């Protein structure tokens, strides 16, 4: 326990504990049944605090979260979310895990080396993102996906986030923050039909704050590593 206290800052511990309390509290108020949602939320928010440190263990947890979240999405016919996480986010998290393990900072496997991508690669990323967005729009339409517009936008933001994560760019956290906002909207819409999904909304509210902190943390890492 003392090692964890030395590894995480006071701010990070407070952020994680606040997120856990928010998730558990919303589960107790609005759900009390879907323990899979609770489990996925706690795993997800824990992965983010490790990701903020550039620790590959965060990506390992993200693989587990992707699997559980895909199952949860299926229960409300959010096929876009299910396909995105099971077919893209989870596999990309595996590639990101390998990438992070292969690129430690100064031999420290608990911290990845921060990377910067060129303007050409940014252009390539956005072209691929546009193609994937269009393709997924028609796929989701075919499956009569609920709330098609935000569902498609979720695919867009998710792909950008996982691509930047794989490439070890600090901006992956910003992309995930935008994805969190889209998902908050999606699950608010779902909660109109089933109050239990309010707990999922609070899950992504917690994710949003953690991703914002993650970007700040990676910017500090980048500055420190450049010295």
What report would you give on this structure?
With 227 residues, this protein is mainly alpha-helical. The protein is built from nine helices and two strands. It has helices spanning 2-7, 10-30, 35-52, 57-75, 79-102, 119-142, 148-166, 172-191, 198-226, and strands spanning 104-105, 108-112. Strands 1-2 form a two-stranded antiparallel ribbon. Strand 1 and strand 2 (108-112) form a beta hairpin. Helix 4 (57-75) runs antiparallel to helix 5, helix 5 (79-102) runs parallel beside helix 7 and helix 7 packs antiparallel against helix 8. The longest helix is centred in the last third of the chain and has 29 residues, at 198-226. The mean pLDDT is 91.
What's the quick description here?
The chain contains nine helices and two strands; from the N terminus they run αααααββαααα. It has helices spanning 2-7, 10-30, 35-52, 57-75, 79-102, 119-142, 148-166, 172-191, 198-226, and strands at 104-105, 108-112.
